[in-house]
Fold this sequence. Notes:
The chain is an all-alpha fold. It contains 14 helices and no strands. It has helices at about 10-35, 40-70, 75-95, 105-135, 135-140, 145-160, 165-185, 190-215, 225-250, 250-255, 265-290, 295-300, 305-315, 320-340.
Amino acid sequence: MGSNARIFSGSRAILHDNIDEEIGDVEKDVERAVREHGFIKVRNQALISGLAYCLSSCSMILLNKIVLSGYNLNAGISLMFYQNLVSVAIVRLLTVFGVISTEPLTWKLVQVWFPVNIVFVGMLVTGIFSLKYINVAMVTILKNITNIITALGEIYLFNKYQNCKIWGALILMVISAVSGGITDLSFHAVGYAWQILNCFFTAAYSLTLRKVMDEAKQQTKSGNLNEFSMVLLNNSLSLPLGLTLIIVFDEWEYLYSSPILRIPMFWVVVTASGLLGLAISFTSMWFLHQTGPTTYSLVGSLNKIPLSIAGIMLFKVPTSLPNLLSISFGLFAGIFFAKAKMS
Length: 343
């Protein structure tokens, strides 16, 4: 649920992990657009796509918070299942009508992708559970821990070392997360445990995704796997796994007896959250191709600021001056981290 995060839809994580690889192609596209259409048109497209990305990303997290806390829904796995079902249905329809193209889901492709899909489902479910207990602002700050785990994982798995600026930003993130938790007036130990677990799942997803993507491409007819195909693959494989978890954790009994399902507005909100999850995928790609990886990364960090403010105001989160300072410190640490990565 993530910015970083529906708190995670499939291609959002995929796009973040593919930014370095796409830098050359994206910059060439931007230069070509400038030559052919002029600066003003490209600038307007970038503004519109950026606003669409920010709006869909913030709305997704806030809607999930409304579903989980406003309706007091105790079925996070079922929520993930329904949202992914909506995404699969829309992608399938767009494919049938020829709007987009996707790779066929062969058995060999499923075998290669299924292990990383387990991590993907774990990432979504833990993100949903954490959002139920923690306010939106603290979720955005605690998600910074993912960057630390990922950096350590890159050293251990790929011998990839970061520079001093990045490690400095990561230390600031640790300080902000610890101080934010200490000063959080609505502290919930269970919620914090879910969020820390979510950080590990998110880091594991990003660390294993590249290798799995390369292996999966070899199992396709075209030798390629575009973002739409990965969204379809991730969300389709999550459905049987999600259904199994619903049965194992007896969520179906809770839903069967819950009056929530008889509230029409509830279905409107959860369906809208599913649509927004897919919208993030589209707007992310649109914005990335209209600007570039540098702007995309920076806007992703800046996007946390209005999201945190909106979360505090809309849900009337009890705060104190020390907690607000900790949140602000964490948000700017995220911006500093993005700028360090750019350099």
